[in-house]
Inverse folding.
């Protein structure tokens, strides 16, 4: 069964017709070409598909696209402005917080949600906020340092 | 202060901005017009004969474009080591594990493809299965491969020196058994690929692989296409750690389906299929018997190991050799005997994972060293320092330590962690432990027997002289190899890092064996350096002719040209350059002659300036059977100290801190080196404390998800203090060697030694869960009656 929906993604409205059983990850990646959102498990365990829904991090693989209607969706593509990296993106690059990069979009969005709530989190708060985003490469250390560095600037 | 302009710094990664913004393209992000979607049908049984496969219904489903079984093609066996080509593209006559690939379907969308796969009817005659390697070796056990009686896939018996005679001279002989668990590499990006076959008979495979070169060769062999007509392109890869280092069914089937249909075919593993494909760390059952003198001098080791290999060989022959050879160092050990058996079982095939073959051996052996130190009343650090190898030493199995900062690593962590104040003096429930390890900096020989170069590189200068492009078939899989190559090329040419770009991971660009055995910094690095120097030589030759200055008096640094003892007039070159670039905004105006101007001149005189480089190691190692495994032009080494808190009521472990020193030779990129060290600690911590692939009694994995197979989260890993030790490696480019795998070696034993220090109990089976500690504590406090 198909449904016509309007999704508000990165401040832009998309009108589309989608099967009602498609996840937000699938629609973002396959229908809208927003492939910055990654798919690592399809079961909500890894956090690679994290997007912000009204500012809160959610696993977009666990959400049907039709359920996201009416909410502000922010994906990694909507973070940099005027071609300039968001301070978190800049910090991830500078601190070496990125290796394979597969977790990075979700990790950065979870970090943004944290900083929007808590401008200057300590490392325990950062670790807790990012504990739903798995990273197999970095051991998290440089990720924590990157988020901490942005927090301190605020 | 570094004498280098580019290397040995913290240059930001080339791919950082693209990865931070979601712009980096991974294979599953690719889409082609007319693309089909391929799905595999896998065996629901661990061991069964295939009586019949009926694909009629599947083929008849609207939208299905192709159905493939082994009957549709000439089946050519393949695998990793040519000595054990025991896999086929799809199952022939029988299935050997629950998940073995039986058939495949290509359709216009995923849903149709899955539906069609369900419609394939397979009649199986179930056979008795065997899951335990000891049972598999027993007489009368089910035979998994006819050619391998008692299911022994590979067997190794080596002796260096005379172990029995040495034992007779020992004051103490200690023996214990150590067991790890089967791992999953748990890279975040599930394997995936897209195959495209064009009308001229050229096949291109985009794949999330670590080794485009080996995949290209395997496809060419299995599908009978000349190597020159197979191109493998690795997009960005979301982690590999070993299991993506060989051709998979996924890759071969997508190619076969693309050829059959003439349309691009995309395939991918679900997370569950990643577990089923496996090819990650084996389970090792090690017994170590070590003999020492009273003063702690190591005299002999007899190491016995049984590996549960799963249904196919994969990297297993190398693995079983590594499980012996990598104990040859980093301690002076004059006598060593090894008996290893890799055994087939009806489970997914194990292969290579970070620290290939050596991690469990190292974990158990370093635990044993602590047991010995305790018995002799020696400090574990002192015991190790007493026996440590140094630069120039050769192991009893003929591995040459051309550089080895092992002693420096131990001293650095001992001092940094305040070991002397803490060891034996911490309160109950707190513990400190240490361990060492080393690893190859690139396998000394290719997987297939060949005189091939291990790496070739092309460095091309753009026609305006302003941009340097490094072209290499090497594989950036997250470790930072593209960045390292850019830094090496910039250093060798004398230009800024920002002016170098890297295109990589494509078999059309160059030959490179890929990302495994921690080889690229050393091997691809050598070839990159040589290629950059070759390009530089050409530019300097032209400049020398033009200015009538001997080339040896001209040098390049930071993108500028310097003349030694002469001041030639280069105004004509500059005027010419500016005329040629009228209207451009980046022309040099005053000051020193730039590399750009010189390189433009070279282009005008000679055409496109291209430098080439190549590398293969010299002949390495001894002449005994299996001597090749463990050889390398260089060895990296590590020492770690772990500090833990254990709840003595519940057995819960908190890792408070890890102090980590690694000798990587000259660190090309210091941030990347630390990244490998920190990542290694995290992966080792997971294996030590909670990771284990579990099966039911039918051979089905019961935790094939990232919820049930737990890898460390940000809350599980401790702060890691990384200390980079830089010995000078004569065989490495600029003295550089590995970090990616040696760094994981000490983690597990350092943790279990710290847990012993905190609790007084020795856990000799991984993972060291709260339950195992709790039971051991209970047993220690209230020993059960014998």
């Amino acid at each position: 069964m198909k449904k016509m929906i309007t999704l508000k993604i990165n401040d832009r409205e998309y009108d589309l017709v989608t099967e009602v059983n498609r996840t937000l990850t699938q629609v973002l990646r396959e229908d809208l070409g927003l492939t910055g959102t990654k798919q690592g498990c399809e079961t909500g365990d890894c956090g690679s598909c994290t997007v912000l829904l009204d500012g809160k991090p959610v696993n977009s693989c666990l959400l049907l696209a039709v359920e996201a209607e009416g909410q502000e969706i922010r994906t990694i593509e909507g973070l940099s402005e005027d071609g300039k990296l968001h301070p978190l993106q800049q910090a991830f690059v500078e601190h070496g917080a990125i290796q394979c990069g597969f977790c990075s979009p979700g990790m950065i969005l979870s970090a943004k949600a944290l900083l929007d709530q808590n401008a200057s989190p300590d490392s325990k708060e950062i670790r807790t906020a990012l504990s739903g985003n798995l990273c197999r490469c970095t051991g998290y250390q440089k990720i924590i340092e990157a988020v901490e560095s942005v927090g301190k600037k605020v | 202060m570094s004498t280098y302009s580019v290397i040995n710094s913290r240059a930001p990664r080339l791919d950082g901005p693209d990865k931070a913004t979601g712009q980096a393209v991974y294979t599953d992000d690719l889409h082609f017009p007319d693309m089909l979607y391929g799905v595999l049908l896998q065996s629901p049984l661990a061991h069964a004969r295939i009586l019949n496969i009926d694909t009629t219904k599947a083929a008849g489903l609207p939208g299905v474009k192709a159905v493939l079984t082994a009957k549709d093609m000439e089946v050519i066996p393949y695998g990793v080591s040519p000595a054990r080509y025991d896999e086929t593209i799809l199952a022939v006559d029988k299935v050997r594990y629950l998940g073995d690939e039986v058939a495949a379907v290509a359709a216009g969308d995923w849903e149709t493809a899955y539906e069609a796969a369900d419609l394939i009817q397979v009649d199986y005659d179930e056979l008795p299965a065997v899951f335990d390697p000891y049972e598999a070796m027993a007489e009368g056990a089910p035979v998994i491969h006819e050619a391998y009686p008692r299911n022994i896939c590979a067997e190794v018996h080596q002796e260096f020196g005379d172990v029995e005679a040495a034992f007779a001279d020992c004051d103490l002989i200690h023996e214990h058994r150590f067991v790890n668990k089967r791992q999953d590499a748990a890279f975040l990006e599930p394997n995936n690929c897209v195959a495209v076959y064009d009308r001229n008979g050229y096949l291109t495979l985009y794949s999330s692989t670590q080794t485009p070169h080996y995949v290209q060769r395997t496809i060419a062999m299995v599908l009978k296409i000349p190597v020159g007509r197979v191109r493998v392109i690795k997009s960005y890869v979301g982690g590999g750690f070993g299991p993506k280092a060989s051709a998979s069914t996924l890759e071969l089937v997508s190619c076969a389906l693309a050829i059959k249909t003439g349309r691009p075919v995309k395939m991918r593993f679900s997370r569950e299929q990643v577990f089923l494909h496996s090819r990650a760390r084996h389970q090792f059952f090690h017994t170590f018997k070590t003999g020492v003198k009273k003063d702690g001098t190591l005299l002999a080791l007899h190491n016995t190991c049984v590996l549960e290999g799963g249904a196919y060989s994969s990297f297993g022959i190398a693995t079983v050799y590594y499980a012996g050879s990598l104990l040859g160092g980093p301690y002076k050990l004059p006598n060593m005997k090894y008996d290893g058996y890799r055994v087939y079982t009806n489970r997914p095939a194990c292969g290579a994972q970070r620290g290939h073959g050596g991690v469990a051996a190292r974990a158990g052996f370093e635990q044993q060293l602590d047991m010995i130190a305790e018995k002799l009343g020696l400090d574990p650090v002192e015991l190790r320092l007493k026996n440590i190898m140094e630069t120039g030493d050769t192991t009893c199995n003929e591995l040459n330590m051309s550089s080895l900062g092992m002693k420096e690593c131990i001293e650095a962590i001992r001092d940094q962690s305040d070991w002397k104040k803490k060891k034996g003096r911490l309160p109950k429930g707190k513990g400190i432990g240490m361990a060492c390890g080393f690893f190859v900096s690139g396998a000394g020989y290719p997987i297939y027997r060949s005189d091939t170069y291990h790496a070739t590189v092309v460095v091309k200068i753009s026609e305006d002289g302003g941009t340097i492009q490094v072209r290499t078939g090497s594989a950036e899989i997250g470790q930072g190899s593209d960045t390292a190559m850019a830094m090496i090329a910039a250093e060798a040419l004398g230009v800024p890092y920002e002016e170098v770009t890297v295109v990589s991971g494509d078999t059309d660009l160059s030959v490179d064996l890929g990302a495994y055995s921690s080889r690229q910094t050393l091997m691809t690095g050598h070839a990159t350096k040589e290629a950059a120097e070759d390009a530089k030589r050409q530019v300097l030759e032209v400049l020398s002719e033009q200015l009538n200055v001997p080339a040896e008096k001209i040098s390049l640094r930071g993108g500028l040209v310097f003349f030694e003892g002469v001041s030639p007039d280069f105004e004509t070159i500059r005027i010419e350059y500016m005329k040629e670039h009228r209207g451009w905004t980046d022309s040099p105006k005053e000051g020193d002659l730039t590399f750009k101007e010189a390189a433009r001149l070279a282009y005008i005189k000679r055409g496109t300036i291209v430098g080439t480089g190549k590398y293969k190691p010299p002949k390495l190692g001894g002449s005994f059977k299996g001597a090749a495994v463990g050889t390398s032009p260089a060895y990296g080494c590590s020492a770690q100290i772990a500090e833990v808190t254990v709840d003595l009521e519940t057995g819960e472990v908190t890792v408070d801190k890890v102090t980590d020193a690694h000798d990587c030779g000259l660190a090309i990129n210091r941030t990347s080196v630390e990244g490998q060290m920190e990542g290694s600690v995290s992966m080792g911590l997971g294996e030590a404390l909670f990771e284990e692939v579990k099966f039911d009694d039918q051979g089905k994995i019961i935790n094939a998800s990232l919820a049930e197979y737990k890898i460390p989260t940000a809350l599980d890993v401790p702060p890691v203090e990384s200390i980079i030790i830089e010995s000078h490696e004569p065989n490495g480019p600029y003295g550089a060697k590995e970090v990616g795998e040696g760094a994981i070696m000490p983690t597990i034993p350092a943790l279990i030694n710290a847990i012993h220090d905190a609790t007084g109990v020795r856990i000799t089976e991984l993972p060291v869960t709260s339950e195992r500690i709790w039971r051991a504590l209970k047993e220690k406090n209230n020993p059960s009656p014998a």
